[in-house]
Every structure is written in structure tokens, then in C-alpha cells.
Amino acid sequence: MLGFDGYMEQLLDELTGHDSHRRILPIVGMGGAGKTTLARNVYENSLVLYRFDVRAWVTVSQEYSATHMLSQALSCFGQSGNITDDELGIKLHKYLFGRRYLIVLDDMWSVKAWEEIRNSFPENGNGSRIIVTTRQQELVDYFGSSSLAVGFLDYENSWNLFCEATFAEQKCPPQLEGIAEKIVKKCKGLPLAILVLGGLLGKGPRTQEHWEEIAKDKSLVMEYSDDGDKPYNILYMSYKYMPVWLRSCFLYMGLFPEDHLIDVSRLIKMWVAEGFIKPTENQTLEQVAESYMKELVDRNLLLVGKSNEHDKVLSYCLHDLVRELCIKTANIENFYCVQRDPLT
């Protein structure tokens, strides 16, 4: 959340203001800019918990379905059932009616996705709010409401985020500062790129020779694809300098659907079945697999999804740009080939 204080304050003002109409609050920005992180921090803020009667978090994604979106919202309220889309929408509307609610629709890509569920959110005249995170300016224009545009970090916050990701609570060693500054500048203020590079450098040797190798690497360029939204080159470095024994496990993650919560026990069984995990003298297959997952988390490539009350991780997920990196690299290396609809 470094550099996000202003965004947090603005969004909290919008959420807790005196406007009694139901309002839609879009957060717009490119992939990896921190839209979901911002929304999540606001969603869990104590002021928000006090202000709203009920809250629900719904992940939309490019490949969405009304059934899944409505079911996610109802599950946040402890409501479920094997019923039709129309019945799901009616059930959600009835539950929200009269309550002051906050709904987060995370990673929405199209107007059509909103139109399929919009009637499920009643206008209660009590200050209910809907936050929409998106990369699409078209959606912001459609809603016609004031939006929050999440931009790039300034250099100071970029540097602080890099140091936090690379050195944890420690400072950058003086002999590496000059090289580190060059690396941070090449990230151009994109939080995801800074975190991934910080994870890469934090796991490698802290020597001038190694860091100079990274700084001079031709992949260390913030180069985007035609849609201007996918900094593949700079993220690819996380794979290029990854230990060989971890690469297959990482690429395999791209086979899971976008924004999917990956069950830990299921992933271990799949890695073992594919032959990616080998036992050691002191560790079982499960323990080795768990150490691989921790390694990917430490590299900021794998995100913790859900944990139990004892902080044991139950599921993980991938940022969609990291998932795209898995798929693209796997195709190039003939590790697997993902067939896609030409329209997506």
C-alpha cells in the first residue's frame, strides 16, 4: 500500500459520505497497478466494517458467468442453493433489500458483465456502494460517475516498495544502491513489476556481479504488448533466473482458470502426479511441494488465497499477468499449449 494513502482517503470519503443514493465507484488502472490491493484494504477497513451492514467480494474476470458472480455474492452472506440465475438474482435482491451494503466487483472487463447482474442490487436509498475495479475506460464512461484512476508510483515510493520486497526490514547495502536505483527506474513505477523483481533479487546472491547481470539484462525493459497492458519482458526475468527445479511447477500454474483459488492439497497431488516433485532424505513429497509453494510466494509470483484460523494456507492464486506469463512461456517452450477462443 506504499503510495496509496491518497487513494485510500479519497475512496473512504466516497464510501462513507452522506449521499444516500446507491453509488458505483470505479477504480481504473492498468494490470499490476494495485487496484485489487487498494479495494481489498478498503474492504477490510474498520470504518467500512462499521458503516455497512453487509459486504461481499465478487471476482468477475474476462471469462465470467452470472451464475458464478451471483453465487459468490450470496456465499459471502451464507446464502447458497442450486437454483437458476433468475432465482439467484431474486434471492440476492431480497437479501440486500433494506440493508446498507458494500459490493466489490473485482476485475470487471465488460459492460455486459455488469448488465447481467445489475438488477440484483437494489436502490435502498441508504448509502449503499458498489466498487468496480477495471482496466477498461469504457466501463468508467458507461457508469458516468466519478472514478479513481490508479497511476504509477513516484520514485520515492517505488524505491521503498523495492527495498521492502527485496530486503524486508533491512536497508539496501551501500555497494548495491547504485545498481538498485537503475533497476527500480526501469520498473517505471508499476508495483507488480517492482514486487516481482524484488522477489527475484531477494532470493539471489547479493553481490555486485549478480545485480549488474540483472541490470544489464535485455529483458529488463518495461515493454508492453499491443494492448499496452502486459509488461511481459520485465516479468519474464522472474522465470529466466528461476531455479530449474522450480520452473515446471511454476509454468503448470497457468493451467488453472483466471482468478481461480487453487486448493493446496489438490495442487500437491497434481505436481506429484506430473513427476515435478521428488522426495528427499529428510522431507516427504508433501513437504517438498509445500517448500516449492513458499519459494514462489517469497518471489511474489504466488499469492495466498485463503488460510485457516491457525494461519495454515488452504489455497493460493495467481495475478492474471503472472498467469499470462506462465501460459506464454509454456507455449514458447512447448511445455503445454493452451487453446484459446480467437475473440478472447
Report on the architecture of this protein.
With 344 residues, this protein is an alpha/beta fold. It folds into three domains: 5-149, Rossmann fold (3-Layer(aba) Sandwich); 155-240; 244-332, Arc Repressor Mutant, subunit A (Orthogonal Bundle). It contains 16 helices and eight strands. A five-stranded parallel sheet has the order 2-3-4-1-5, with helices on both faces. Helix 4 (66-76) runs parallel beside helix 5 (85-96) and helix 10 (191-203) packs parallel to helix 12 (232-240).
CATH superfamily of the largest domain: P-loop containing nucleotide triphosphate hydrolases
* The CATH class of the largest domain: Alpha Beta
- Class based on secondary structure composition and strand pairing: alpha/beta
Number of domains: 3
Short description:
Helices cover 47% and strands 12% of the residues.
Question: What's the arrangement of secondary structure elements?
Answer:
Blueprint lengths: L4 H12 L6 E6 L6 H9 L2 H6 L2 E6 L6 H11 L8 H12 L4 E8 L2 H5 L13 E6 L2 H7 L4 E2 L5 H13 L9 H10 L4 H13 L4 H9 L15 H9 L3 H9 L9 E2 H11 L10 H14 L4 E5 L5 E5 L2 H13 L12
Parallel strand pairs: 1-4, 1-5, 2-3, 3-4
Antiparallel strand pairs: 6-8, 7-8
Question: Any key phrases for this structure?
Answer:
about 350 residues, alpha/beta, Rossmann fold, Arc Repressor Mutant, subunit A, five-stranded parallel beta sheet, three-stranded antiparallel beta sheet, 16 helices, globular
